[in-house]
Amino acid sequence: MALRRPGRREQDDGVRFSRTLTLTLFIIAALLIAFDRPDARPGAFIAFRSAVSDTAAPLLDLTARPLRGIGNIGPYWQRQHELAVENAELQEQLTETRYWRDLALRLRDERDIYREALNLTPASEQERIGAWVLADPTGPFVRSRLVGAGAVRGVGEGDPVLNVYGLVGHVVEVGQRSSRVLLLTDLNSRVPVMADRSNARAVLTGDNTNFPRLDYLGRDADLQEGDRIVTSGDDGILPRGLPVGTAALDRNGRWRVRLFSDNAPVDFVWVLPYDRLPTPEEAPASLPEAPDAEPVGVNAEPAAATDDTGTIAIAEDGE
Amino acid sequence: MRAPIERRPPYGLAIWCAVTLLLALLVYATPARLTRSTDLMPLLPLITLFIWSTIRPYFIPPIVIFIVGLLQDLLTGGPMGIWAFAYLLSLTIMRVRKEDATTRDMGPLWFRFVATIAIAVVFAWIAGSLANSSPAPIQPMAIEAAASILMFPLIALISVRKRSSRGAFG
After folding, report:
1. What is the ipTM of this complex?
2. Which residue in B has a C-alpha nearest to residue A210's C-alpha?
3. Within a domain: residue B5?
């Protein structure tokens, strides 16, 4: 703190600070507001923010530990009641899950057979990365979480983040040991989704409420109250089929989503490292040079590179 | 020979001021959801800045206010500059320049805090809406402001009592 600094004057009417310094700080703050826009953030700002998050992560973890404990205590009777209700629900779900497990195993076997028959290359199935939430700022401008896993553990920008029930958001900033997750409810969040039942497409748009909107839904879209909403993967950023929530109509007749992830506090999450498909512009295929006198006909063999590209494209589409 | 206790520079108090500001920032950014449905968290950094600027005005120069606001922006993941500007503006307008007896009275102190937080929150709402290119929701800001106003007397009472119990700090 400033104890005896030249920028301060103590006069009869009290402490006064340098007006030039104050004015300069006002200008710097105004410039930061003008240029640090969430939709077009300069690279230097992103690097600076990640560095601060990395530095603060251990301190936030230390602060969070006792608070996590306090949050879990709660009134005894309330906990007991909640546990009893939860136990009954879990038993019901377990019974249901047995059927789905058998079905999943059978479908997995079928899938393996089809893959083998079609010579499909399976997408890389990487391990999910578990991480504690270190910071839980929920303000009027941003809904994000700082999680204790970063580039060192394989987290990448855009990776989806889930809790035990469903999608929470995706990674927007990656530091060495920490990452910032933009929640689905944030004002800047846009995620392509679809109804599991009808494949009706929409964009899940956050508006800082607990129930994000379904925008760009066709006029005659086949959507019903309670339909399960999953990611569609249309943007190529998030994988297809991640559980998001259920469709619900609000008072104004607008479609919204009741998020699965709201069923539990977001205190421990999994990051799913996901290799996005590169666009043709990002990874153009190198076409073989056409031979001068090659006959082009029905019996002509296609070029090897075309074959390879085709196989890969089919394999990845299949996923 | 030791200097009289009143004339010694209060380095210990300055360190305590820095520690409380850091703690306020960390607790504000830490997951501490009190209920499942409400994200209730008072603006602890502003409360701490305000109390210190009342107890020891020269501990809280504009650069400290700016840094605390900027750190709050960074830790909460919001656009940089919003809280830095809001805190600078509100505390520059409402700060106490000289200690006198009235700064110890809870009524005027609370009233001044309400005015300070009102200026900060209104400006932060405008700046946040401009940064996001759409109006920010009012409810979370209102909840934060209300929680801060309600919690302020408790923190202020503890701080003022602690201060009055130590002759050197008074």
Report:
1. 0.81
2. B37
3. no
Q: Which residue has the higher pLDDT, B46 or A127?
A: B46
Does B118 reside within a domain?
Answer: yes
Pick the range with the lowest mean pLDDT from A100-109, A119-128, A143-152, B124-133.
Answer: A119-128
Contact B103, B96 (CB under 8 A): yes
What per-residue confidence (pLDDT) applies to B156?
84
Partner-chain contact A21 B62, CB within 8 Å: yes
Residue A85 has pLDDT above 80, yes or no: yes
Please classify residue B145 by burial: count the beta carbons closer than 10 Å to its beta carbon, then call 0-12 exposed, 13-18 middle and 19+ buried. Answer: buried
Residue type present at position A60? L
Closest residue to A14, CB basis, from B28, B61, B98: B98
Residues of A in contact with B141 (CB under 8 A): 139-140
Looking at mean pLDDT, say which of A128-132, A140-144, A314-318, B103-107 comes out highest. Answer: A128-132
Structural domains counted in chain B: 1
Domains of chain A: 125-271 (2.40.10.340)
Chain B (38-57) residues lying within 8 Å, Cβ to Cβ, of chain A = 39, 41, 56-57
Residue B144 forms part of a structural domain = yes
pLDDT score of B49: 92
Tokens read off for B117: 């937080």
pLDDT in tens, A154-166: 888 889 999 888 8
- Identify the pLDDT of residue B162: 57
Question: CA of A48: which chain B residue's CA is closest?
Answer: B74
d(CA A2, CA B55): 14
What stretches of chain B show up as alpha helix (H) in DSSP? 11-29, 44-55, 62-76, 82-94, 106-132, 138-165
**CB–CB contacts below 8 A, A to B:** 198
B33–A137 CB contact, under 8 Å: no
The answer to whether the CB atoms of B66 and A25 lie below 8 A apart is yes
How remote is the C-alpha of A218 from its chain's centroid?
Answer: 25
Q: Are A239 and A274 in contact (CB under 8 A)?
A: yes
State which H helix or E strand residue A129 sits in: strand A129-135
pLDDT digits (tens, 9 = 90+) for A232-261: 888 777 888 889 999 998 888 889 999 988
Q: How far is B74 from chain A (nearest CA, A)?
A: 6
B135 CB near a chain A CB, below 8 Å?
Answer: no
Of A53, A138, A187, the CB nearest to B39: A138
Bridge partners of residue A17, in order along the sequence: A8
Query: What count of residues does chain B have?
Result: 170
| Residue A45 sits at the chain B interface (C-beta within 8 Å) | yes
Which residues of A, range 130-149, sit inside 8 Å of B by Cβ?
A: 133-142, 144, 146
- Looking at A103-107, B81-85, B104-108, which range is the least confident one? B104-108
Higher pLDDT: B138 or B90? It is B90
Give a yes or no: residue B170 inside a domain.
no
